[in-house]
Design goal:
Blueprint lengths: L1 H5 L3 E5 L5 E6 H20 L11 H28 L1 H6 L7 H24 L8 H31 L8 H29 L10 H23 L1
Antiparallel strand pairs: 1-2
Helix pairs in contact: 3-8, 5-6, 5-7, 5-8, 6-7, 7-8
């Protein structure tokens, strides 16, 4: 951060008494940035940074297994959740048509918000007194985007299915569902990096399989609870 801010090409390293111990040059900084970038990219994808360089099949499988297990568990939980609301789907079959878009939009906006926060943390700007501004901007962005897509999806569902018997309030479920899920996703996407940092874990992990798995389950729960309250 200091090299970027002051356009430095090198910097001295001194001990507590001010004696010169060495010099950090710009190429050292570039190497560190490159390594950190690879590591963050790997964590976001749920893989090991070493996978970019090694052909070892066993170690590659070993590092990816926990992340895939997490995604698998999330999928099983989501499936159980759908099964728990089977009565709702039987009565209002069209609800199933909107499950993919609600899950996808929630995961996408959550990852976007989380990625921005992790980037600010990497640049050490989150400690410069602008933390509240960053948080509020990202959350406001999530709320506005949620409102836009809630209106769009609500309108589409009403035009497509609103004329069917009992479907006049479907727009409340689809529009309200995607709106609520996206707001929740934005909040979780902002919050998770700080939680990871607090417990000493790498905040970049929050932008990977963890956030998408959590949001898939929570998004389905919100959607079906709203459908049960409005349509059943």
């Amino acid at each position: 951060a200091l090299f970027t801010h002051y356009d430095m090409l090198s910097a001295p390293v001194v001990d507590p008494e001010g004696r010169l111990q060495g010099v950090i040059t710009i190429d050292d900084v570039v190497d560190i940035i490159h390594d950190e970038g690879e590591e963050d990219l790997a964590l976001m994808a749920g893989v090991d940074a070493e996978d970019f360089h090694r052909p070892d099949l066993f170690n590659t499988l070993k590092t990816r297994l926990p992340w895939l297990l997490l995604a698998w568990v999330g999928g099983v939980v989501a499936g159980e959740l759908i099964g728990a609301y089977e009565h709702a789907l039987e009565k209002v079959v069209v609800l199933a048509a909107f499950i993919p878009v609600i899950m996808h939009m929630g995961g996408t906006i959550g990852v976007q918000s989380s990625t921005v926060i992790v980037r600010w943390m990497a640049l050490q700007r989150a400690e410069s007194g602008r933390l509240f501004k960053i948080f509020s901007r990202e959350f406001a962005t999530g709320v506005i985007l949620s409102a836009v897509y809630a209106l769009i999806l609500g309108l589409i569902s009403h035009i497509r299915y609103g004329s069917f018997s009992g479907m006049s309030r479907l727009w409340l479920v689809t529009g309200g569902g995607i709106g609520a899920v996206m707001v929740l996703a934005a909040f979780i996407g902002i919050l998770l990096p700080f939680v990871f940092k607090k417990i000493g874990a790498d905040p970049a992990v929050a932008t990977g399989p963890i956030i998408t798995t959590v949001l898939d389950v929570l998004g389905l729960g919100v959607y079906f609870m709203l459908a049960s309250a409005v349509l059943l």
